[in-house]
Amino acid sequence: MADMNISNEIEPPRISLIDVEETTKLQNYLKKKKMIRYLLLLGLFLLIILLIIIIVIIIKAKKNDSNDKKGDKEKLYLNIITAKYFTNNENETIKLINNNINNILDIKLFINKEEKKFLDEYKYNFNETNEYLVEFKFNNELKNISELFMNIVNLKEIDLTGIRSNNIKYMDKLFYQCSSLEKINLNYLETSNLESAISMFEGCQNLVELNMINFITSKIKSTSKMFSNCINLKKINIDYFDLTKTEDASKMFESCNLLEEIILKNDKESSAINMKSIFTKCNSLKKINLDKFEKKNITAMDYMFNNCSSLEKIDLSKFDTREATSLYSTFSNCSLIKSLDTTCLNTSNINDMSYAFRNCSSLTSIELSNFDFRKVELIKGFFFGCSSLESVIIDNYEINASDMSEFFCGCSSLKNVTINVGRSIKVDRFFKECDSLEYIDLSKFYGINVKLYTDFFPVNAENATILYNSSIIGHLLSRIPTGWNKIDINNNIFI
Prior knowledge:
Distance between the termini: 196 Å
Shape: rod-shaped
Radius of gyration: 44 Å
Largest sheet: 6 strands, mixed
Strand order of the largest sheet: 4-3-6-1-7-8
Oligomer: single chain
Helix content: 10-25%
Number of domains: 3
Number of helices: 2
């Protein structure tokens, strides 16, 4: 029994067929579950990869779109400009550029939209068209584009929209003598650092209109001859030109024959300025607005309004001329001006007044009570050809100019004159052709210093009355025409 019990205790357990099947099923289930988990993880991984790819594509697309938009916005600043040229002759050799080529990185020539190899002098048979385009690419540090297109007579249109110009200081003679130039786009030209524009458009004879409303001139020092000889220029918008720092505006509008109106504004304290010949030969000019020049110290006025033959009125009330040294031909040939108030002009430093009012043929009266002649050395032909002038009084300051010849020559309507003359040497043809004279007061005329006095008095004036001082009139006494009424204040003698 004992042996039987021991045998029963060590006998291994018996596993039935049913148990084996269940275990196998469990193992298969666990394998399948594990496989499904792996597949789910793989699917999730692939999905994440796909999402990442989609996100990258979207970001890249947005970036490209942004770059396209940015490119559109920055087209104005690519430093590339285009110009249109033309020729009237077939097989003509045309010089495209001849000056400041160091600023140019690349030049492309297009004829009928086909790019051609650029040559400094390009020869092409223009059988189909007489126009072609040139594209200029500049470096990024442009500071001086002076003379860039100077003397290129076949330049017709130019668009400066694409030029990066914020560092440019000098534009002297930029379009000098571009005589065929008709159109310039300056709308986006940045000129905040521009210091000089001497002769910038001089000789652009086909230019009719110029819009410079966005042209910044706050730092500009010279505009001399800027629009000189633009003979067909009819309209120019420079209403907002700031000439605060401008020192030289001489001949700025010289020979702008068709220009009818000019408005120059200046609201700030400014330096001295040379305005010599600024409007000379603007013979269609009818209106000049210089209201803001009361703070501008004018140093030179020679030929300032010379040949402004359509100008009827000049307002000088705002002018500061205390440093001006010359009035040579300042108002000469202003043939429509009837009266002129010069009382506001400070002439204390003027040394030359020669021909100041020459051929102001409509001038009937002029106020000179404030004119200071004490430093004047030359005053030849002061009223030469003022054929409508009737009366002149100069007695508050003595004139000691060495040359006073032709002073009233050609003043055919002059009736009354009072003049104070000291040490003048030349007075020949002084009253020549003043045949309407009725009264002359020469009581303060020191003729004893005179050496040249040919044709001093008019030949055809009759029955005029002359007041003089025999102790100082000198040789002129013998030149007084026969038949004149003579009054010698020295001896209280009436002859």
